[in-house]
Structures are given as C-alpha cells and as structure tokens.
Amino acid sequence: MTYETLMVEERDDRLVVTLNRPEARNAISGRMIAELHDVCDELERRPKLLLLTGHGRVFAGGADIAELLERGRDQALQGINSRLFERVRRLPMPTVAAVDGWALGGGAELSYACDLRIAGPDAVFGNPEPGLGILAAAGACWRLPELVGESVAKQVLLAGRNLDAQAALGAGLVIDVVPAEKLLDEAHALLDRMARSSAMALRLTKLVVDSPGAHPVADDLAQAVLFEGRDKKDRMTRFLEKRSRA
After folding, report:
1. Is residue 99 within 8 Å of residue 124, measured between CB atoms?
2. What is the pTM of this model?
3. Less packed terminus of the chain by CB within 10 Å, N or C?
C-alpha cells in the first residue's frame, strides 16, 4: 500500500510507522487519520507489535489547525481523531511511541493512546487546545489523568504546562529518556524484550489490563486459555530444563 503521510516498514514481528508530514511538523491531518486507520486494519487482521514515531525530530506538532478551523458540530460529534486513537489503544498487541521533539495537541493524544512511550531528550508533551478555543477531546481529558494522575493532568490541560522529557519521566508518562541518536534503537530494544514473550500471553495481558475495573473472572478465563496452549508448555519445559542444568 502507498501512503502519502506515513512511512511504513513491516518486519516479521512488528510494524514501524513514521508520521511523515515534515512541512507541517507532522500535524495530524484527515489524510493521516485515514492512513492510520489502514494501519489499524492491518494490525487487527495480522496482530503485530507497533512502533510509532515521527519524521525529522518531531513526533507530531498537533492536529492540522487549518482543517480544525473548518470543522463544526457535526464533525466534532463524529470523533474523527478520538475514534482513531481509541482504535490504536485497542490494537491486539502492545504499541510503543518513540517521541522526540514536539508531541502537542492531537500528537500528544496519539502518544497517550499507545501502551508505552520512550522519549528523546528534546521531547515535549502538551495540550494547548484551550488556547485555541477548544478542548483536548481525543482522549487527553480522561486518558492523561490515568497516566500521570489528576494533578499533573490538570497542570497540562488547564494551566497549559508542557512536560519536557525529564518531567514526563518523573510523572511516569515515559519509560525512559535516551539520547536522540539512540531513540529508535532503544525503542526497538524495548519491543525486542516484549517479542521474546509469548504473543498470546501479551495479547491477553493487554486485554485484561485495559478492561475497566477489577475482573478476577477475566484473569481466570485468560489464564485458562494460556494454560492449555502449547507455548506455555514449551516455555516452562525449557525453563525447568535450563534450571536443572545450572
């Protein structure tokens, strides 16, 4: 498939997607939304890990303001961005956002929708939407408090505070801050660690973690599926054999 706003690299166990609108600081346009839906189609049909990043030392400088200006009530009710980001959130396998430079507005919200974030030293997360007369309506108002707590979320959403890389690390928004030249390598290393785990165990763990509230029955059902799987038997047998040789 040919993309206008994305660069997509497919590997055996993952998809690497780079937001690619350098002339607009990778702003999230309607075309990019459509193309990211195509990516979700693929990852729902053939589940793989996802690495999401931005081209040119910018993750995404926000939504396309020129397009937002033309949207009215009907478009707001369609949830154009929010429905995509929720779809990203619900992808079967874990997702990682590698963020350096600006991740603002919709760009920040897209990164919040990923399971994990890793940052370069110049990463900046922020939601300046109220300054444009709107709110962060693509998940930040409820997803960010879940990620960093209500106090920090309100500092970002109400007081216009931007979280630089170290502040994001301190708030638990990112897993690590690494040199810019090593950002993608470290993001792939993070995915490599996950890829060594059972794919089905990762899928079911993510499903249970993302379920609202405590669900012991969901834990039991997911574990029952895994207990009957060949992968569990093979992995535990290898573990016991390795320990017996130690």
Report:
1. no
2. 0.92
3. C
Tokens (6 digits) for 119? 């940052």
Q: 217 Cβ partners below 8 Å, 6+ apart?
A: none
DSSP string, 10-36: E-SSEEEEEE--GGGTT-B-HHHHHHH
- Determine the Cα–Cα distance for residues 42 and 87; give it in Å rounded to an integer: 12
**Quick one: pLDDT at residue 216?**
79
Amino acid at 59: F
Per-residue pLDDT tens digits for 37-90: 999 999 999 999 999 999 999 999 987 778 878 888 888 888 889 999 999 999
244, with CB counted inside 10 A (0-12, 13-18, 19+), is exposed
Q: Give SS3 for 122.
A: coil
Contact 98, 140 (CB under 8 A): no
Q: With b meaning 16 or more CB within 10 Å and e meaning fewer, what string describes 63-80? A: bbeebbeeeeeeeeeeeb
Q: CB neighbours (10 Å) of residue 245?
A: 6
